[in-house]
Design goal:
alpha/beta, eight-stranded parallel β-sheet, 13 helices, about 15% strand, binds NADP nicotinamide-adenine-dinucleotide phosphate
């Protein structure tokens, strides 16, 4: 495992996304039980994963509860725990006292006195950022949170959040994968320049880059609303899948591992793939040690640059699919 240093705390470049645990969106109880989730979290800790990402929203708190039960059993007898625990505030009414109350409730579910990172899950333009960040300052001052973070923020908003907080907002968690490379324009260079963290969510395009799906086998869970899971976009993504397969073959790796290795080859970028089996978790963690050559990075970027989603056809397909029963 490789780590980034954040004020003396180690952040693993491959983290564990915990949305899959407890969430109906991912058919949790049908696909994975609490024991299954527990085994994945324990194995992640064993393999040196320190970055654990959850949210109050995932499974309405169930993801935090499951994670909290496991972490409570793995706390070292002395000294600070080795993990970098990140959770998120749902900013429906992001007033300072609401944020403080929600943060306290998250920590109770997680059974920890402090989160390493507390993220505003998405921008709420209806409430001034200075109010939202006033709440963030309170939880930081009280020691409930070590670092402030945001999620789904543009660069302009991230900078505005810095100003509102009165200090750097450490991290921005955004959708970033080989088919959705928007963050490379401004967010990745900013994070690199300023020593911030860019946390890549959906780094496998929700499993599409794993190479195991075809339009005939697309999953019928939360991904029914993902425009990448349409026949139109699947066809257009063929050159990216081909590039992934080619590079993977040269390393004896899998396309999913190469997709992750591409992201974490970018400066100050860490990825938080979700996993629904031990095998997936282990494969994802191993991607941290997969070094791609400059030529391979160019090969992947070139294929990815040519990917243009078919918005119209995929919207039509999604419209039809959403009305079909699973
Ligand atoms: N901040 C935000 O707004 C936001 C939004 C979304 C997610 N997130 C966070 O980011 C995390 C990850 O994002 P995500 O879950 O959307 O997408 P993802 O990590 O790209 O995809 C996860 C899915 O990919 C498949 N998979 C995992 N490892 C694989 C492997 N080695 N080979 C092949 N397939 C593999 C699994 O599904 P199948 O096996 O069923 O295909 C898994 O559920 C979440 O858990 C959450 O913590 C944050």
């Amino acid at each position: 495992m490789r780590y980034l240093d954040v004020d003396g705390r180690r952040v693993s470049v491959i983290g564990l996304g915990c949305w899959q645990f407890g969430a109906g969106a991912w058919d949790f109880d049908r696909v994975l039980s609490e024991d299954g989730a527990r085994a994945i979290i324990e194995r992640a800790l064993e393999l040196g994963v320190t970055l654990l990402d959850t949210a109050e929203m995932y499974g309405h708190g169930r993801s935090e509860l499951i994670l909290g039960r496991v972490l409570a059993e793995h706390r070292p007898p002395a000294g600070p725990p080795p993990w970098f625990l990140a959770t998120k505030f749902t900013p429906l009414a992001p007033l300072p006292r609401v944020l403080v109350r929600h943060c306290t409730a998250s920590l109770q579910r997680l059974r920890v006195p402090q989160a390493a990172l507390y993220q505003i899950h998405w921008p709420n333009p209806l409430v001034p950022l200075r109010w939202q960040m006033a709440g963030m300052r309170q939880v930081m001052r009280a020691g409930l949170v070590a670092h402030a973070g945001v999620s789904n923020f543009s660069l302009a908003r991230w900078r505005a959040a810095d100003r509102a907080l009165g200090r750097p907002v450490l991290a921005n968690q955004v959708r970033y994968n080989l088919l959705q490379r928007g963050p490379e324009r401004r967010l990745v260079p900013f994070a690199a320049r300023e020593g911030r963290l860019l946390i890549a969510y959906s780094p496998l395009a929700q499993g599409l880059l794993g190479g195991g799906y075809t339009p005939q086998t697309f999953p019928r869970d939360v991904r029914r609303a993902n425009p990448l899971f349409t026949a139109a976009n699947y066809r257009r993504a063929a050159p990216v899948r081909e590039a992934l397969r080619e590079v993977a073959a040269a390393h004896g790796a899998t396309p999913a591992q190469v997709a992750l290795a591409y992201l974490i080859a970018q400066p100050q970028v860490v990825a938080i793939p979700g996993a629904r089996s031990l095998a997936q978790l282990e494969a994802n963690v191993a991607a941290a040690d997969l070094a791609l050559s400059p030529g391979e990075l160019v090969r992947l970027r070139t294929a990815a640059r040519r990917f243009r989603p078919d918005r119209l056809r995929s919207a039509l397909e999604l419209g039809r699919g959403l009305h079909r029963r699973p």
